[in-house]
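Hi everyone,

Forwarding the result from last night's run.
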Amino acid sequence: MIEEQRVFTVSDAGDFLLIDKPVGWTSFDVVAKVRNTYTAAGFRRKVGHCGTLDPLASGLLILATGRKTKQIASLETLDKVYEGLIKLGVMTESHDTEMPEYGHCSVNHLTVADIKAAAGTLQGRHMQKPPMHSAAWHKGKRLYEFARKGKHVEERKAREICVNSFEVTAIDIPFVHFRMEVSKGTYVRVLAHDFGQSLGVGGYLSSLRRVAIGEYSVADAKSVTETIKVIMREAKDSVE
């Protein structure tokens, strides 16, 4: 259990912070911003995150500060819940909006039953390879370093993942809205690609938002700006 959220303590006992990460920020960007804010307030704090969230995704990011950073590993193993949008009938090399579209085709023949059945086939345990445009390691380099040089690494190490649920929440062809609960280490954009492949039309992840980590919800999170303001305010109060 995460204790009631605080953002500042005078001691180095530390806290867990629930952050609603905006699109365009890396997880490290958020960590650095919070760490630098503590420094600006006159206090040194260790700060780390409990599970990376892609720059193109928004939503829940849990930070640990002070001695709470020793508990990061226990939170990283929790299942995650995502909501997002998949665009069918087209693909990208990165399986998301980072790279340009290619392979356009018609999706007008797809039925609601087809789409929901395809989602059902992706539930359960699978072996999943990380995408080429990812920060996964291969022979001492990040995969995206190979991808940016036009090199494809076929022998990427697969890991077992579990899709606990894949619910189609709305259909607006060519877009499919979904809610998905997955295990640690799952690349949702790979699942989006696989979803499109199973329908025979291709697809990619158009948008993604992490709404929960275990029992912790983005509804209880603060924005980066709100968190910074509270740190500065509580730091000021602590020395008055």
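The mean pLDDT is 89.

Cheers,
N.
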